[in-house]
């Protein structure tokens, strides 16, 4: 399946991303490789050598408000789109205000810098620092000069990158600075699970443009399912649609723009702690909010899924009845009996299935990530002679 990546100026059109659901010869970009980190797929692989320093090759003026910086190696998304890593000065040494920095979605070696209008015919110096390359190399300081043209920006914005920071938060970069009011209109964004802005719609409830990088917008969304590909769609919307900071609207035959696919990967839950405040109770706490419904909820509280043994004083600690969910991350087991004490080891059973909402016995987070053997154990300091804790908590200090 071929789909042209949107998110570039007119002069950058033509790059194509291939997504293959089955084995196919698509320049190596198959479905399995697509969901690897973006930096490791796009850009020149032949230059990926951390022992070779990267350089700033050129600063090329595109309009009187836009400069293209070309590096010798693919640049990381975080360092490339950090506005504080760039300075542009005029011949008198005065700084030119930078409005946005965004990496080209089709070539990780190119960064676009948006500025306030430059004086046509004036030579400027672009200086970069703190740039990191995807192969581990870095660039301390480098500079290149360019002469400002007199042509103005006349093309609308496109998506540069979309990253799911959590199940309900997206970090969105456009390929240029966008208008504050339009960018912060939540109704201008839609999240779909089908190519061409089709499929189920997940709403966007809030949009906030970054105060330093006008190409960056943070979206608050409905809950994303871990591991599922999504597309962010931006509306043309006539008078209310997304525009760049100079007033150029989005243009597309789809009545909007569509990002490349992005995927939210939920953090894997782990056993955070196992505690006991009396001989008859054990509290198991996880690192993530847990799924307390359906088959996953049943598995979470099923005492048969928890084994406590290997106690330093020979014996075991038995959980004799189902637990009770406490808050969103803990399960309390009462009616505990034991033949051992001291330092014991708890293990949560991991069945053979992999799907959270159908595999019986599989403990999962609320975001849909399953418990694995990498985090299904904990240590319990159990004392069979402990008296029941009847002392209420008290404030012992305020700082």
Describe this structure in words.
The structure is a single chain. The chain is mainly beta and 399 residues long. The chain contains four helices and 27 strands. It has helices spanning 31-34, 77-80, 180-183, 294-301; strands at residues 2-4, 16-18, 56-63, 66-71, 86-89, 98-103, 110-115, 123-132, 138-147, 159-166, 169-174, 189-194, 198-202, 204-209, 216-221, 229-235, 256-258, 262-263, 271-278, 281-286, 306-309, 317-318, 324-326, 330-334, 337-338, 342-348, 377-382. β8 and β9 form a beta hairpin. The longest helix is centred in the last third of the chain and has 8 residues, at 294-301. The protein is elongated, with a radius of gyration of 27 Å.
Secondary-structure map with pairings?
Blueprint: E1 2-4, E2 16-18, H1 31-34, E3 56-63, E4 66-71, H2 77-80, E5 86-89, E6 98-103, E7 110-115, E8 123-132, E9 138-147, E10 159-166, E11 169-174, H3 180-183, E12 189-194, E13 198-202, E14 204-209, E15 216-221, E16 229-235, E17 256-258, E18 262-263, E19 271-278, E20 281-286, H4 294-301, E21 306-309, E22 317-318, E23 324-326, E24 330-334, E25 337-338, E26 342-348, E27 377-382
Antiparallel strand pairs: 1-2, 3-4, 4-7, 5-8, 6-7, 8-9, 10-11, 11-15, 12-13, 12-16, 14-15, 16-17, 16-18, 19-20, 20-24, 21-26, 22-25, 23-24, 26-27
């Amino acid at each position: 399946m071929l789909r042209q990546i949107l998110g570039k100026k007119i002069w950058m059109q033509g790059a194509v991303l291939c997504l293959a659901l089955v084995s196919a010869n698509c320049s190596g970009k198959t479905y399995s490789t697509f969901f690897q980190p973006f930096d490791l797929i796009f850009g020149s692989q032949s230059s990926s050598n951390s022992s070779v320093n990267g350089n700033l090759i050129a600063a090329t003026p595109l309009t009187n408000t836009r400069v293209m910086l070309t590096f010798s190696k693919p640049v990381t998304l975080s360092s490339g789109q950090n506005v504080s890593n760039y300075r542009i000065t005029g011949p008198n040494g005065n700084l030119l205000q930078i409005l946005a920095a965004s990496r080209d979605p089709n070539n990780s070696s190119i960064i676009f810098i948006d500025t306030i209008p430059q004086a046509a015919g004036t030579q400027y110096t672009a200086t970069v620092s703190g740039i990191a390359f995807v192969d581990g190399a870095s660039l301390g300081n480098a500079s290149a000069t360019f002469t400002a043209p007199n042509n103005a920006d006349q093309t609308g914005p496109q998506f540069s990158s979309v990253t799911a920071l959590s199940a309900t938060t997206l970090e969105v970069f456009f390929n240029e600075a966008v208008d504050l009011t339009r960018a912060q209109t939540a109704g201008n964004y839609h999240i779909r699970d089908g190519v061409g802005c089709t499929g189920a719609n997940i709403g966007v409830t809030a949009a906030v443009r970054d105060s330093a990088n006008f190409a960056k917008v943070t979206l608050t969304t409905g809950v994303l399912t871990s591991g599922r590909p999504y597309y962010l769609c931006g509306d043309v919307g006539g008078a209310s649609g997304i525009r760049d900071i100079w007033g150029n609207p989005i243009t597309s035959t789809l009545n909007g723009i569509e990002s490349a696919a992005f995927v939210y990967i939920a953090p894997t839950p782990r056993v955070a702690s196992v505690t006991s405040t009396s001989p008859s109770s054990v509290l198991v706490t996880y690192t993530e909010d847990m799924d307390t419904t359906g088959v996953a909820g049943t598995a979470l509280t099923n005492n048969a899924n928890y084994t406590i043994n290997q106690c330093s004083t020979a014996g075991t600690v038995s959980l004799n009845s189902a637990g009770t969910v406490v808050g969103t991350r803990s399960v309390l087991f009462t009616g505990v009996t034991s033949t051992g004490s001291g330092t014991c080891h708890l293990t949560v059973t991991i069945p053979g299935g992999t799907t959270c909402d159908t595999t019986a016995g599989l403990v999962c987070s609320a975001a849909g990530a399953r418990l694995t053997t990498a985090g299904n154990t904990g240590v319990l300091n159990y004392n069979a002679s402990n008296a029941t804790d009847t002392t209420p908590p008290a404030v012992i200090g305020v700082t």
